[in-house]
Design brief:
- By secondary structure, the protein is an alpha+beta fold.
- It has two domains: about 120 residues, 3-Layer(aba) Sandwich (Rossmann fold); about 160 residues, Sandwich (Tumour Suppressor Smad4), CATH 2.60.200.40.
- It is built from ten helices and 18 strands.
- Strands 1, 2, 3, 4, 5, 6, 8, 9, 15 and 18 form a ten-stranded mixed β-sheet that branches. It has a six-stranded antiparallel β-sheet with strand order 14-13-10-7-16-17.
- The protein is elongated and about 60 Å long.
Length: about 350
């Protein structure tokens, strides 16, 4: 007869060995080095903080066994070429440490590839990261490179004359395109641009737009501006509509025919508080749209001015894989939204 103590210990030994084996395998998997290309833009956000930011990013990457090849962005950098060359060498993770503009600069090289885009948001607005649930904290955003959720998202492509441009957020036509560069300068501290912004707003005139939606529906409208969105939150976390999704295979076209310039600005202010419904806005879901403006209006895609005149925009479903957060936090909490409504309503 075997003593009870020995019998119990003998029964548990195989289970204990299995647990040890599984733990070792998990540790081996977790600590397997992961190659990455790190695109670091020292000019994003607050440039004076960039040395410490880079040091923190590299330290966190070391903690997670991520082995980065660092490329520092310069004014003459061709980031699409840098990224394509990295992918050709077998690197599957492209990490952008910068703002929305830096992210926008690498998208064209990654669309349709099997590489994954990781984001460490160090810019001014970090709107793309906000939509994707990526925190601005460096330690947390680097941890997502290992523990995040690989997500295939839609990407838009706009054709304007000889220009071709991929975009994640939105393409704008008209007044929005005129105001965006001025608002961007103001957000970066150039308050002297406020006068020019107001002057641009006052002097803006509408144009006649002729639109073809998905090659069969034709619309004519007189507009100060038009917006084609792929993400719900734009610019400084301005929510155009909670119905917009970058996972549904559609672009969201918004026309503002029944809104004056004053009403449009009021709408923009309320939308930042979460109050986005407005009867003067018409919303269409499209996969392809062609637009001609008379007279010509300026065209902007994710902050990049493309020119004036006619444009063609198409959605490319699930064309880019991004390492997203555990939840897509591009939504304001109900408590904050209710507080905003109370503030507006008095």
């Amino acid at each position: 007869m075997v003593p009870d103590g020995l019998a119990d210990r003998g029964d548990k030994e195989p289970e204990s060995e299995i647990k040890v084996s599984i733990t070792r395998k998990l540790k081996t998997t977790f600590h397997r080095p992961l190659r990455a290309k790190l695109i670091f833009n020292a000019g994003s956000g607050k440039p004076e903080e960039s040395p410490q930011q880079l040091a923190s990013i590299l330290s966190e990457m070391q903690n997670h066994q991520i082995l980065p090849e660092v490329y520092t962005v310069r004014p003459d950098s061709q980031l699409e070429t840098v990224v394509r060359n990295a992918i050709k060498t077998g690197i599957k993770l492209i990490v952008v440490a910068g703002g929305d503009g830096t992210i926008d600069s690498v998208v064209g090289a990654m669309v349709g590839s099997d590489a994954i885009l990781g984001i460490v948001p160090t810019g001014t607005r970090n709107n793309v990261a906000f939509n994707l649930g990526i925190p601005e904290d460096i330690a947390q955003s680097v941890a997502l490179l290992r523990h995040g959720h690989p997500l295939k998202i839609d990407v838009g492509k706009v054709h304007c004359g000889h220009s071709r441009h991929w975009f994640l957020e939105a393409t704008a036509l008209g007044l929005l395109s005129d105001l965006y560069p001025l608002a961007d300068e103001i957000q970066h501290g150039k308050l002297t641009m406020i006068g020019e912004l107001l002057s641009t707003l006052v002097s803006a005139t509408p144009a006649r737009l002729r639109m073809t939606l998905d090659k069969h529906k034709h619309l004519d409208a007189t507009e100060h501006m038009l917006l084609i969105s792929n993400m719900s939150f734009l610019g400084p976390h301005f929510q155009i509509s909670p119905k917009v999704s970058f996972k549904d295979g559609y672009l969201d076209l918004f026309t503002f025919s029944d809104m004056s310039k004053v009403n449009t600005i009021s709408y923009a202010m309320l939308a930042q508080l979460g109050l986005v419904e407005n009867s003067g806005i018409t919303h269409y879901r499209v996969k392809h749209v062609k637009i001609r403006s008379i007279p010509h209006m300026p065209i902007l895609a994710d902050g990049v001015m493309l020119g004036q005149g006619s444009l063609s925009v198409q959605i490319h479903p699930r064309a880019l894989t991004i390492m997203a957060g555990p939840s897509l936090t591009g939504r304001k909490s109900r408590s904050k939204l209710n507080a905003s409504k109370r503030a507006v309503n008095g």
